[in-house]
Write a structure and sequence with these properties.
Length: about 230
Amino acid sequence: MRIDIITVLPEMLDGFVNTSILARAQKKGLVEIHVHNLRDYTLDKHRRVDDYPFGGFAGMVMACQPIDACISALKAEREYDEVIFTTPDGEQFDQPMANELSLKRNLIILCGHYKGIDYRIREHLITKEVSIGDYVLTGGELAAAVMSDAIVRLVPGVLSDEQSALSDSFQDNLLAAPVYTRPAEYKGWKVPEVLLSGHEAKIKEWELAQSLERTQRLRPDLLEKK
Ligand code: SAM
């Protein structure tokens, strides 16, 4: 899988792309992440990528030319499954969307800034608009980071224990069961007996019952989707 992230703040993503799960996935040769500085594509001699909005509204708008030039240059090299724009008015990012995107080969993620991007780019070049939540961030970089992390950890081979991702919250519209580690007793706080029993079937049964109980109590809306 390859993810190309387009941004005016590449330094914001450098550390993230070169540490964490993304670094591990790249080292294993399973994923490539490329961060592109939008300013490298502008024809403006001052390297500007934004301009005043028509209509006299407040704020600045990211202009068509550099975005078009960057996306066109990438598309000339390979086919992309999706050209994603991060935006608060997009479709809500969730685990099913992460699952779906983890099966793709090539993705572009465009990070907006200022008041956003010229709407014509959204109409003509963007294939998917995604929000990470009902709040407004200053730029799309954190959204691109959140999405890349959630997607890449699902790519087969990235996590050392693939079963681990399948038992995480939101897979099967359930919250995960509680987890414990050694010691079995700490300050008198005990680990549930069944987890120490070594009885695989009983442990599975306990795990499912815990998932169902926690989902019912904390996120009953998820059970309606099942
Ligand atoms: N004027 C825009 C609006 O009201 O919808 C908000 C612009 S915001 C200040 C700048 C950029 O941050 C957006 O273009 C988008 O790329 C990114 N962004 C902000 N909030 C986001 C969210 N919840 N999810 C994804 N991207 C977001």
